[in-house]
Amino acid sequence: MTTLRKFALLAGCLTFAGATYALAQANPPQATPPGLVQVVALDECDPVTFNAALGPDFCKNVAVGAITTLSDLFAKAAAGTPDPGWDFEPDTLHIQKGTTLSVVDQGGEPHTFTEVAQFGGGFIDGLNAGQATVPECAGGFGNVAVARTRILQGSHVEITGLKKGKHLFECCIHPWMRVKVEVK
Fold first, then answer.
1. How far, in Å, CA of 13 to CA of 87, rounded?
2. What is the pTM of this model?
3. pLDDT tens digit string along 65-98?
4. 58, 145 in Cβ contact below 8 A?
5. 3-state SS class at 158
6. What is the reported pLDDT for 5?
7. Nearest to residue 61, comparing CAs of 73, 49, 72, 53?
8. Rounded-to-10 torsion of CA 36, 97, 177, 50
9. What is the C-alpha separation between 169 and 153, in angstroms, rounded?
């Protein structure tokens, strides 16, 4: 390759790089909103057993592989060893004041994301492993405050305005699903 061709190729590359940089500066990518943190609700409900007991289309799990039957869910919870596939991720958060929590239900059935003073049992006795129902979960969905914290499959809820300090959230249906949030 001649020196003139090399120089022309180099000049073309620099021109392209400069145009790309200028275009990127004119149209910067959309940034994630500041102070947004995601929490994901997960479960492994078995559509056959859950829907037979709770109604058609209650469990909308599309997972292939490890699933939990309704009877196994109750048996594991009663034994004090709840299914680890039913969880909020992450379990612990350290955030700045003003951060929004976006809680997304990626499981097959509904959950709640209810703030409680202390972790404890939910509103379904058979899933509480002997723990008393915490006051914030009492009454189940008949309690408007609990109903407002429900998250349906594939949906999300945003939690805003958390004050400095420690906040505890649990699912009032599956009370071992818990998140500790420390706001600084």
1. 51
2. 0.79
3. 678 999 999 999 999 999 988 999 999 999 999 9
4. no
5. strand
6. 44
7. 49
8. -40
9. 18
What is the model's pLDDT at position 123? 97
Unique residue bearing structure tokens 């009492």 = 138
Q: What is the mean pLDDT of residues 11-20?
A: 38
Q: Are 64 and 108 spatial neighbours (Cβ–Cβ below 8 Å)?
A: no
Q: How far is Cα 10 from Cα 7, in angstroms, rounded to an integer?
A: 5
Ranges 13-22, 35-44, 79-88, 89-98: which has the least confidence: 13-22
In a 10 Å sphere around its CB, with 0-12 CB exposed, 13-18 middle and 19+ buried, how is residue 144 labelled? exposed
Q: Compute the distance between CA of residue 179 and CA of residue 71 in angstroms, rounded to an integer.
A: 25
- Which residues are CB-neighbours of 172 under 8 A, at least 6 positions away? 112, 114, 122, 123, 134, 136, 137, 140, 146, 149
